[in-house]
Amino acid sequence: MSDPVNGAERSLGQLVASATAEMSALVHDEIALAKAEIRQDVKRGAVGGAAGTAAATVLLFSLPMLSFALAYGINTWTGGHNGEGGWNLAWCFLLSFAANVLLAGLLGLLAYAKFKKVKPPEKSINSAKQTAAILQNVKPHPRPERAALPATVQDKVAAVGRSST
What we know:
- The protein has 165 residues and is an all-alpha fold.
- The protein has four helices and no strands.
């Protein structure tokens, strides 16, 4: 390794190590940004998923019990008790079914509204695109002429050149 002159000149290995460390830090920052954005959307999606699951659960497990209770309640409410007749039980069961479908529909709308708010990680995508655009336009810095280098550095460059041939 060559000694830096006034801290301005570094060896090729030092430059590569520095570039690698900076690229690694950039990639880690991009990943952290994506995780932060996705974490927020996952929470929204989880609420929407829970609402959808609740809708399906309510519709599936409560329909039989709720339907019978509601149908007999409607029949009783319309005068089906005390031998007065009331509405036909078939209509009462149909109304009970309609009430359950309405409840499931409302829960389904809640789930849809939550899922609609889930968005792609736009900040991460834009940042990654900017990084890719910058990296595509990167060109190596022109190398200084040997005459412009101090004599001690020229001697070291020459020595490295001789040892590698």
